[in-house]
Amino acid sequence: MDIANAKLSVPINGLITPLTRIPDSVHRFCRPLNFYRPDSPYDLAFSGSSLLFRYRSRNFQLATKHQLRMAGQPDFDPAMACLLFEKDGGHIGLSPDGATQVKVNSLDDLSAEDILLLEYENQRGDRPMTPHFLQLDPAQMAGLAQVPDSQVKLIFSIGYPFHVQGYEPVFDESYNVTKLDVVARWAKLYLERRARARFDLETRIPLRVMEKYHGDIGDPKGWSGAPVFFLWLDAKSDLQLGFAGMITHGGGTAFGVYPAENIVELVNRAIDTAYQ
């Protein structure tokens, strides 16, 4: 392997991925948060973004708890969440095997509880599940607070904003509608640090869309639950992939990110205790 290329590549689930392909490679672990709604004209409802990750030999889907709420509708049941997979020219939805809504002992900041974890077994029928989850080892993947700004080269997020999701009709040769295809389009945000404002929560990392991309963001709704990653150079100038956390809220071009360190602490707690 060329040494120069190796320094500008990172392993993602065991596959060495060059710098230019990292955001697109990570996107396959970033999914829309979908729910089956038998009481709706459409069987499937969208509720923002999520990350599929594997940690301590367990498969999790990470999102925010507030994504269970939709204006003017009953709250979503976590058991009705589903991951979509292609099969026989269509899609099947697999529901989670368990769900955890995080509880924090201290009531000083209820925003600390804004985490939803859905768990999937390693095998569902004839479908192995582990390849669909990002191997996330916090001991090997730095958080944003651990890296000096001068070493951070790129901060990015992969999400599913509402304005690019929907359903598209499929027609036969006589132009009769035969089915509705689910359309889940992903988008990238390139982010940078910003000064903390009065409206920012102390438990969030304040970020904003990079100046050159302000015109491309569109409506920010749907970015809740989107993971935030960053690329940085270590002391040997080798490229590393870091996990900054999860977007929980935003307005305009400003976003608040739940720090990865806090997420890992709560995931450890969820693994070590019973489901709630």
Strand tally? 20
The shape is globular
List unreliable stretches of 5+ residues: none
What's the number of domains? Answer: 1
Instruction: Give Rg in angstroms.
Output: 19 Å
How is the main sheet built? Answer: 8 strands, mixed
Residues in helices, as a percent range: under 10%
Give the helix tally: 3
Derived from helix and strand composition plus strand pairing, the structural class reads mainly beta
Mean pLDDT: 84
Tell me the span between the first and last alpha carbons: 48 Å
3D architecture notes:
- The structure is a single chain.
- The protein has 276 residues and is mainly β.
- It has one domain.
- Helices cover 8% and strands 44% of the residues.
- It has three helices and 20 strands.
- The strands form five sheets. Strands 3, 4, 5, 6, 7, 8, 9 and 12 form an eight-stranded mixed beta sheet that branches. The protein has a six-stranded antiparallel β-barrel with strand order 13-16-17-20-19-18.
- A hairpin with a 2-residue loop joins strand 10 and strand 11.
Please specify the SSE layout and strand pairing:
Blueprint: H1 3-7, E1 9-12, E2 15-18, H2 22-26, E3 30-36, E4 44-55, E5 58-63, E6 81-87, E7 90-94, E8 98-101, E9 116-120, E10 123-124, E11 127-128, E12 134-135, E13 152-159, E14 165-171, E15 177-184, E16 187-193, E17 205-209, E18 227-233, E19 239-251, E20 254-259, H3 260-272
Parallel strand pairs: 4-12
Antiparallel strand pairs: 1-2, 3-4, 3-6, 4-5, 5-9, 6-7, 8-9, 10-11, 13-16, 13-18, 14-15, 16-17, 17-20, 18-19, 19-20
Salient structural properties:
single chain; 276 residues; 8-stranded mixed sheet; 6-stranded antiparallel barrel; 3 helices
